[in-house]
Write a structure and sequence with these properties.
Elements (H helix, E strand, L loop, with lengths): L5 E8 L17 H9 L1 E3 L2 E2 L5 H10 L3 H4 L15 H7 L3 E6 L7 H6 L7 H6 L5 E5 L14 H8 L7 H6 L1 E3 L5 E3 L18 H16 L4 E10 L33 H6 L3 H6 L2 H31 L6 E7 L18 H4 E2 L1 E4 L11 E3 L3 E2 L3 H10 L13 H4 L10 E7 L4 H5 L8 E7 L2 E6 L5 E4 L17 H16 L9 H7 L14
Parallel strand pairs: 1-8, 1-9, 2-12, 3-13, 4-5, 4-8
Antiparallel strand pairs: 2-11, 3-10, 6-7, 9-11, 14-15, 15-16, 16-17
């Protein structure tokens, strides 16, 4: 095996860490992803830095916590000055592009203020999170706002799927027993097979585009961010994936009646959301989750195709492969739906890293249970390509010492994640204004602590209560632990890397050198 030359960065959307065979799901079959884990390292305790699409992805792409990059929710622009994965890798000579979703909103106000033309090369890259947009598709295309030039719709029409928006009418709708087309926007239709053939689904299409692009790149070094929309809703799978699983395959919800007692106000507000009320109903869970599982098995089949293609083309030997997700999905656990809060089903993510170099041979097929963060991936990539971790600005830690079994000293003791729920109905239900809706998680080996602006904290004892059902946020016996965790959070805030424009070497070179520059102060 050779050294790392290319990067294949695969991200699923809303894929729970525990919904893979290699991570212990009892009925879900993912043999190809399991094989990937066997060829690399499966980091079993990896956490995203914000359990919602946009800010989580911005943390992946910048290598920085949400408190640092500032894109706190979907649609909040990433500041123009933030350096991203594409910027770092382009400087190393890699063609770095996107096929699929980023959920990035461009900082158009700053671009206009500085006179950056969006049609210029710098403007295009700045508005696409630093990636060449080989094919950007954020995956949700309602009829009222669908892009008339959406490439996937053109592809579907070419294959005979008619309509103004075949993304909706073919890929995310299915026919009922009477032959009537029913929309995948509605959970009640999750059991129907999508109108689209499996070969033309979103997952199949993006995989095809990825293989075509890798072939076209030839021997030029590249980084491809292949970012699938599924298994994110609409929960609608093409045949045969739509009924590959049934109600008996659904794992019971991780929840109990006691969780409804002394409920944290923010959690109570989220439980009022429609998705939480629906997924709290076992009949609805059992109806929808088989489709979610089918979508995962569909991705798994295309991982098999993609890995076979890379092997045939000789790229397995020089390509670092990363498989992960932006966040999880409550699916009714803790009487909640969707994501955004900090239980493991929402904030823990799958993370498999395959390093082709011989240095990684000793760690292959290992399950590593050390605490890992999504922001660790960017410094891992730059470390593998150039031994430069950009540690004055990147807030994660390179995983290369773990991949190469050469860690010196202790690993991290805690991971962190953040939320800004100001865009959700929960804010109004709580009578809050925008800006009053921040929450912060710190998770250590033994405890998970969530600090809310304006509300009491939550605390879970992960040794005695790994299911996170007993909130110790008001327990007098745990007051000292909460104080300690709040101190950890305070220390983390103080460690923010805000001097992003000057390296550590620059600081070292300029320290106490004023006299050599002819500047004197306080001298007699």
């Amino acid at each position: 095996m050779a050294n790392v030359r290319n990067i294949l960065f695969i991200m699923c959307d809303q894929l729970r860490a525990d919904y893979l065979g290699c991570n212990g799901h009892p009925t879900l079959r993912t043999p190809h992803i399991d094989a990937m884990a066997n060829r690399g390292v499966n980091f079993s305790r990896a956490y995203c830095q914000a359990p919602v699409c946009g800010p989580s992805r911005m943390s992946f792409y910048t290598g920085r916590y949400m408190r640092s990059h500032g894109a706190t929710y979907n649609g909040v622009p990433l500041a123009l000055g933030e350096v991203t994965m594409g910027d770092y890798l382009r400087d190393l000579g890699l063609r770095t592009g996107l096929i699929g979703k980023t959920h990035m909103a461009a900082d158009l106000a700053a671009m206009q203020r500085l006179g950056v033309n969006r049609r210029s090369e710098p403007g295009l890259l700045a508005s696409q999170c630093g990636f060449e947009p080989w094919e950007r598709d954020d995956g949700l295309h309602p009829d009222g706002s669908v892009d008339p030039d959406l490439a996937y719709n053109g592809y579907l029409r070419h294959h005979g799927y008619a309509g103004d928006n075949p993304w909706h009418s073919a890929a995310n709708s299915g026919r009922d027993a009477d032959g009537e087309l029913q929309s995948g926007w509605f959970l009640q239709n999750a059991h129907l097979p999508a109108e689209v053939h499996r070969d033309h689904s979103e997952t199949a299409y993006m995989t095809d585009r990825a293989m075509e692009k890798i072939s076209a790149l030839g021997d030029h070094p590249w980084c491809l961010h292949l970012s699938y929309i599924k298994p994110h809703w609409p929960y609608m799978a093409p045949a045969p994936y739509h009924n590959m699983y049934g109600r008996r395959d659904v794992v019971a919800a991780n929840r109990c009646p006691e969780e409804k007692q002394n409920v944290h106000p923010v959690i109570a507000a989220f439980r009022q959301h429609e998705e939480s009320r629906n997924f709290s109903n076992d009949e609805i869970r059992n109806h929808v989750i088989p489709a979610y599982m089918g979508l995962i098995s569909e991705i798994d089949d295309h991982m098999g195709r993609l890995m076979g293609f890379l092997e045939h083309s000789g790229r397995l030997d020089d390509t670092m492969i990363i498989f992960t997700s932006d966040h999880g999905d409550y699916l009714g656990d803790h009487w909640l739906g969707e994501k955004e809060m900090f239980h493991d089903c929402a904030v823990r993510i799958p993370m498999i890293v395959i390093d082709p170099s011989r240095n990684a041979d000793a760690s292959r097929s290992q399950v590593d249970d050390r605490l890992v963060e999504a922001i660790d991936l960017l410094p891992t990539i730059t470390d593998a390509l150039s031994q430069n971790r950009h540690d004055h600005v990147l807030e994660g830690r390179s995983l290369l010492p773990l991949l190469h079994n050469r860690l010196v000293g202790p690993w991290r003791q805690a991971v962190f994640s953040e939320a800004d729920y100001g865009f959700r109905a929960a804010r109004r239900n709580l009578g809050l204004k925008p800006g009053q809706t921040r929450a912060f998680m710190v998770r250590t080996e033994g405890f998970k602590y969530i600090s809310f602006l304006g509300f009491r904290a939550q605390l879970f004892d992960l040794q005695r209560d790994p299911e996170e059902r007993v909130d110790l946020g008001t327990s007098e016996a745990h007051a000292a632990i909460r104080t300690d965790m709040e101190t950890r959070l305070s220390d983390w805030f103080k460690s923010a890397k805000i001097r992003a424009t000057a390296t550590q070497e620059t600081v070292e070179a300029r320290t106490d050198n004023h006299k050599t520059r002819g500047i004197y102060f306080g001298q007699w």
